[in-house]
Write a structure and sequence with these properties.
Blueprint: E1 3-10, H1 20-24, E2 33-36, E3 42-50, H2 53-64, E4 68-69, E5 76-77
Antiparallel strand pairs: 1-3, 2-3, 4-5
C-alpha cells in the first residue's frame, strides 16, 4: 500500500525569480512548492508517494542529495 509523505526542506540558497524554476524542477512531479523560510532561505515542500518512510527518505535523497543541519530548530538544508 502506498502512503503519502510530506517533505519540508530549507535549502542553503535564496529564492527569487532568477532561480525559482531551478528549485521547482526536481520536485514538480511531487506537487512541489517553494517559498522563503523564516531565515530568508529557500524552502521547498513536496509530497512523495511511498510504501514506507524509508522509501520516502531514499526518494528525497535521490531528488536532492545529502543534507546538513542549518540554523536552529532542527532545520535541514540541502
Amino acid at each position: 500500500m502506498t502512503e503519502s509523505y510530506n517533505v519540508v526542506a530549507e535549502l542553503d540558497a535564496t529564492i527569487g525569480e532568477e532561480n525559482v524554476d531551478a528549485l521547482l524542477g526536481p520536485i514538480a512531479e511531487y506537487s512541489g512548492a517553494a517559498a522563503r523560510s523564516e531565515l530568508g532561505r529557500a524552502e521547498v515542500v513536496f509530497t512523495i508517494p511511498a510504501a514506507s518512510g524509508r522509501q520516502a527518505a531514499l526518494t528525497r535523497y535521490r531528488r536532492s542529495g545529502p543534507t546538513r543541519r542549518c540554523g536552529g530548530g532542527g532545520r535541514v538544508c540541502w
